[in-house]
Amino acid sequence: MNTFGKKLRLTTFGESHGKAMGGILDGVPAGIQLSMEIIERETARRRPGQSALVTARNEKDIPEFLSGLTDGMVTLGTPIAFMVRNTDQHSSDYADMERLYRPNHADYTYDMRYGIRDPRGGGRSSARETLNWVIGGAVARQLPCMAGISIAARIVSVGGVADSMEEMMKVVAQAKKDGDSVGGVVECVVSGLPAGLGNPVFGKLHARLAEAMMSINAAKGFEYGDGFAAASQHGTEQADIFTSQDGKITTLSNHSGGIQGGISNGQDIVMRIAFKPTPTLLRDLPTVDKAGHPATLRAKGRHDPCVALRAVPVVEAMAALTLADMLLER
Amino acid sequence: MNTFGKKLRLTTFGESHGKAMGGILDGVPAGIQLSMEIIERETARRRPGQSALVTARNEKDIPEFLSGLTDGMVTLGTPIAFMVRNTDQHSSDYADMERLYRPNHADYTYDMRYGIRDPRGGGRSSARETLNWVIGGAVARQLPCMAGISIAARIVSVGGVADSMEEMMKVVAQAKKDGDSVGGVVECVVSGLPAGLGNPVFGKLHARLAEAMMSINAAKGFEYGDGFAAASQHGTEQADIFTSQDGKITTLSNHSGGIQGGISNGQDIVMRIAFKPTPTLLRDLPTVDKAGHPATLRAKGRHDPCVALRAVPVVEAMAALTLADMLLER
Amino acid sequence: MNTFGKKLRLTTFGESHGKAMGGILDGVPAGIQLSMEIIERETARRRPGQSALVTARNEKDIPEFLSGLTDGMVTLGTPIAFMVRNTDQHSSDYADMERLYRPNHADYTYDMRYGIRDPRGGGRSSARETLNWVIGGAVARQLPCMAGISIAARIVSVGGVADSMEEMMKVVAQAKKDGDSVGGVVECVVSGLPAGLGNPVFGKLHARLAEAMMSINAAKGFEYGDGFAAASQHGTEQADIFTSQDGKITTLSNHSGGIQGGISNGQDIVMRIAFKPTPTLLRDLPTVDKAGHPATLRAKGRHDPCVALRAVPVVEAMAALTLADMLLER
Amino acid sequence: MNTFGKKLRLTTFGESHGKAMGGILDGVPAGIQLSMEIIERETARRRPGQSALVTARNEKDIPEFLSGLTDGMVTLGTPIAFMVRNTDQHSSDYADMERLYRPNHADYTYDMRYGIRDPRGGGRSSARETLNWVIGGAVARQLPCMAGISIAARIVSVGGVADSMEEMMKVVAQAKKDGDSVGGVVECVVSGLPAGLGNPVFGKLHARLAEAMMSINAAKGFEYGDGFAAASQHGTEQADIFTSQDGKITTLSNHSGGIQGGISNGQDIVMRIAFKPTPTLLRDLPTVDKAGHPATLRAKGRHDPCVALRAVPVVEAMAALTLADMLLER
């Protein structure tokens, strides 16, 4: 279960403290000129260590492409393999992890699932995996089927504060100071998507997007259009009345978030994803060890007070991979 | 894209105003005694026409099984095919549909997707498709891998009212009287699921559940555990502290909704799905016809003021299909 | 594992002595006018009981279509479900089967696989399943992507005799008289397939065809082009020299059977499939019962002295399903 | 289409003259101690340059594992990524390939399929891809589900000569001397496979094996049991009579090749694969260039007079991947 997509398939590998992260992107058409700058720009957006507010892991995160491209970055129609070696592993920071279960982390469930965990770190559950997705998404964005489609995500609330970016950053800074963390909501808007993408039963456009977004670490909820707010309203309030503009059928409002019956209607796709606060806190926490004995988890290591901030480019990457996959599938 | 599941696969067919609905459930192990009563009980829960508050379509909805079972309803390990003939079609009610686009319905997007629509009715976008899912889910619930697992959904708010079932029903009754409709939220709790189900990257337990739930007609949002509320909180508020009870590792709280890192932790799975108000209103509405000319959609036909009510058994069915699929896949 | 194809997917059901055979064909584009005559013609070609030489089971084998089509047989783009009720079941003929293992039949292996067998007959291992494939193939042949492509199979040898159809029929008649059976080879030629269909690694055109053909009951071997004979030759004998004809690149010979490197080259696809003699003989045979005790299998029931004869339309159907799937996938 | 398998999935990458070959093997259970020696032994068996009779490309072909394993080669249950850098590329040998179509090679069909070819060499159509399969197969052989199962392939005829290995090698040596090449047949026997593996409809054991074997470069035919010879025989000659030995049901003969109705019966699986002569000859050959103009392909470069010889470990690898996949799927 390390493959995402049907026609455009990203298969990934890499434990956070293993030798390398990477993946194979299969299904990319031949003859497309890719830009390495776009790929590096996206991995840079995701990279930790960009500001005092995000975790200090400092890796260049520039992929080496192993196949699928000419020397001049033109696609051959063959699988595109890429790899980023892990250089800054600090696995000693994670010594306790082998022994103790961290609250809200995947340590315990991972043990229940596999019976073995990479002694060097967070294994496949680490957010470092999302680097692979951002690289895949950066390629997906450049495909001809995505021409004219813009995907833009931004943080819309942090810890319940939605006023301004400045106010949100204050909440994050305070959490960092307190050794605490804070949740947030990311909104993603897709413009320029043609009408008619999606399926009426399984494979609904919003079901595919929900699956993609809920794959991102720390995601707790997904909604599109008016989402949960629509559940509090009446049909008369939610009706997107059809009209004709310049000979083109459109709607007067977009409560639907650009999707009706699982199929895009040509309006902007609007979706929001809720992220929980990072479970890693710079505080001592009570827990148990593998044998179930009480223990104390000592605060140390890197600390990322708000994963929602770093999720922004990941949300865009997963949207790009999902939409390119569905567009190629048509 | 009419197949759901990987190891337990439900492939469905049927236009709402065609000859029949039905499906093939593949992957059911051999030698299991099924109960027809459980299947009929579930289709009865979903059936319209049970009360004054839900739409009056009155079909028995009892499936005929065509294969996969002995005469005594023991599974043969071969595909289980079932069929429900459509007897109450009233396609004349839908005459306008061929010509006019109903707001928030799939009429327009369906035309964009296929270029042809079943002139007899809602095609595959109709909620009648969920009958197939309820039948599949009723079989899935009876599989040995589901023993000891309970799945219980209930409506938790209607039009923003969450006080009591009585208060919620008043809101629905008022909407019906007004020719209006109202949204609602369904909560589903899964108890008894063993720890270790799910995957750490793609195929996360909550991503699979999100995809399943977002496939249900009128679903607008999905969350698990504290969901969107978690995005407003701090890590210190969300920590599910591990403890030992009777030699078993458990947590003191369940903000996680029973899933950490995409894998079940043995606690209850808790999820909520937001449903929008039914787009069909008993009011005249402005719209356009296929050529884009202004038109009026006349109020008539059946009316279901709150689809969230009928979604309750559908949510359970999709949970059963998803979990049985993942349990068989292990 | 009852689904064939990726983009055009046929999911089938039915035990030979159950209520019905049938399937769901998903992935058919919308707006295609289908001909019921073509479908009935193909099922008639496959039908037993056409001559004294093939088994006497006498069913009409005309499918009822349950979905996916307008009343006038125009496709809706939705799944096409069909069903043929089993009317002539004679399950009493099969009473011994519950107890005794027939040589070269699937009785024993089926028990090893499922632990339960349909007490009424051959279950899913029966050649009656190929009726579903012929119906699916008859639809596939009519798709626009198949326009200009002809698929023609014929028997090329029976019991080692390849002289003329008359000689071959003598061999079959003699086998029937002797209560014996005889194997045969079917050749299938596909003309008009454009160059460029297939894949260079997995999903090679001939690998997909091999998988399809080896799915047919009693198939023992598959080859394309010069096949096994090529293994006895030298490269200088096998070279298909390129040339230009009327400005089009073609080859002077077709040892390759129309496929190079897994991809079609525009020449005729030529393949041959070996079928073993029917294992059912009208002779008493020694065998064992389920407990392993020696027993005698009494000769009785229907008898089909050469399954290869009836395989001809099935080979064409599987070719049509495979090629249409791959053409739609492009 | 660069993924093989369902539960055990090998996704591969690499152009023969690109930077590296490699793959991701997903679905390997956790906690298995792998042996690097077994992997190196298998890649060495496949490696060119071992004798005067096979092509002189001289690469070490030892994979670097990038993920999925502890430092001590214990599997983590996560995807196992591996890579072999291409060091001996000699792409100048292939200069003509850009311009001229080589008979029976994939040059022309590849152009028809993709419209672009790796200017550095054979792209994905090269037999170098099978290195990835041998590495994957060497891991598959070591899985616990394969314990007690032996897979042994050997060459049984070369250019029609089947007398002795010595005689066959003479045929190859003569072909090499003549700048010619010669075909061959590889037989593979699987012992120890339990009864009950396979499926009665699609996914028949022999259909899966046929697909796997026909994926190997230069494969032209596949048969199991008596194969094409069975098509020349009568049912009385082919009957594998059941008997009881030491309380275990077995058969007196194995015309079936260990498979009945698509499911293993506990006898040895016996299959044969026909390979055509290498299309590369050390002789000048007439051909056309991309524009269709007559041209001469000059003899040069490496020359492998009998690919069937090198196919032996590849046949075993594909058998191992297929069987491990199906055993894990059960």
Would you mind describing this structure in some detail?
The structure is a homotetramer of 330-residue chains. With 330 residues, chain A is of the alpha+beta class. Chain A has eight helices and 17 strands. Chain A has helices spanning 36-46, 107-114, 130-140, 165-177, 205-213, 227-230, 235-238, 307-329; strands at 3-4, 9-13, 20-26, 30-33, 64-65, 74-76, 80-85, 150-158, 184-191, 219-224, 242-245, 248-251, 259-260, 263-264, 269-275, 285-288, 294-297. A five-stranded antiparallel beta sheet of chain A has the order 1-2-3-7-5, with helices on one face. In chain A, strand 13 (259-260) and strand 14 form a beta hairpin. In chain A, helix 1 (36-46) packs antiparallel against helix 3 (130-140), helix 3 packs across helix 8 (307-329) and helix 5 (205-213) runs antiparallel to helix 8. The first copy, chain A, is globular. The relative contact order of chain A is 0.19. The model of chain A has no long low-confidence stretch (mean pLDDT 91). Chains in contact: A-B, A-D, B-C, C-D.
What's a quick, concise take on this entry?
Four copies of one chain form a homotetramer. Chain A is an alpha+beta fold.
Oligomer: homotetramer
Most extensive interface, residues per chain?
A: A-B, 106 and 106 residues
How widely separated are the two ends of chain A? Answer: 24 Å
Compute the number of helices of chain A. Answer: 8
Radius of gyration of chain A using CA atoms only: 21 Å
Average predicted confidence as pLDDT of chain A:
91
Low-confidence stretches of chain A: none
- Fraction of residues of chain A in helices? 25-40%
Apparent shape of chain A? globular
H/E element string of chain A?
EEEEHEEEHHEHEHEHHEEEEEEEH
Strand content bin of chain A:
15-25%
Strands of the widest sheet of chain A, in order across it, are 1-2-3-7-5
Strand element count of chain A: 17
> How does the major sheet of chain A shape up?
5 strands, antiparallel
